[in-house]
Design brief:
Vanadium-containing Chloroperoxidase, domain 1, mainly alpha, disordered C terminus, globular, single chain, 241 residues
Length: 241
């Protein structure tokens, strides 16, 4: 356990150092991206959600789509995805006596917490209505009411999409060979939130990008450590040859 908390402290230290160095610049870039994409495709949000919510094709009924979406999105939640993957990599690191995997587990937890807190603050501050509220005719998709704790006004951004993107980006930085699988997972979680009638495309897109931004701030050191390990391994292989 001492080793575990040591890795947590190291991961938090790395995040703070990265945030002090380039955090403000990265967050401003995300904000500019969010505004530009909202202006470019935001008009399509309500129409796309209504289409996805009523889509049917043969045996693929609306009820079946909702059932699948309900199953998929739960795997992107911090409580399941982040905690389970962090536990997996930490146990694997203990079994293999691999400190890199233990560091990865700690970074997953720190990045997941930072992402979760950031998304929660954004949800409260923005106050965007969820699709069902708009579909009942209570308001419009881009009627932002500002600070609110009401769940039906916490659509922006998508927390599940951000959580999945954060965890997958951290893993991808540490283990890039898994990138194709991780991309499919993030895409599935994001689409499930739209199909389940809980988020708009811009909620999902901005949540994913926010999650990646947090991962880059929290886990850039993992890529550096991986490159040093690979370089060391390559040097040993060359010496052996």
């Amino acid at each position: 356990m001492v080793n575990f908390w040591k890795n947590i402290r190291l991961a938090w230290r790395d995040f703070r150092a990265a945030f002090r160095q380039r955090g403000l610049r990265v967050l401003i870039s995300w904000l500019v991206f969010a505004v530009l994409t909202a202006l470019a495709i935001g008009w399509f949000d309500d129409k796309s959600v209504r289409f996805a919510n009523n889509f049917e094709w043969g045996w693929l009924t609306k009820e079946r789509i909702h059932a699948v979406a309900d199953t998929i999105y739960k795997y992107g939640d911090f409580g399941f995805f982040t905690l389970s993957t962090a536990a997996f990599f930490f146990i694997l690191g203990m079994v293999k006596r691999n400190p890199y995997l233990k560091r990865l587990a700690a970074t997953l937890l720190v990045a997941g917490l930072v992402s979760g807190v950031g998304v929660r603050v954004l949800k409260i501050c923005v106050g965007r209505p969820r699709p069902p509220v708009v579909q009942r005719g209570e308001t419009t998709a881009w009627h932002l009411i500002g600070p609110t704790f009401k769940a039906k006004w916490n659509s922006y951004p998508s927390g599940h999409s951000a959580s999945a993107a954060t965890g997958c980006a951290v893993i991808a930085l540490a283990l890039p060979r898994l990138l194709p699988v991780l991309l499919v997972f993030v895409g599935s979680v994001g689409l499930s939130r739209i199909a389940y009638n809980q988020h708009y495309p811009t909620d999902v897109l901005h949540g994913v990008v926010f999650g990646v931004v947090v991962a880059l701030l929290c886990a850039s050191h993992l890529a550096d450590i991986r490159r040093r390990i690979e370089a060391r391994a390559g040097g040993k292989k060359t010496a052996a040859d």
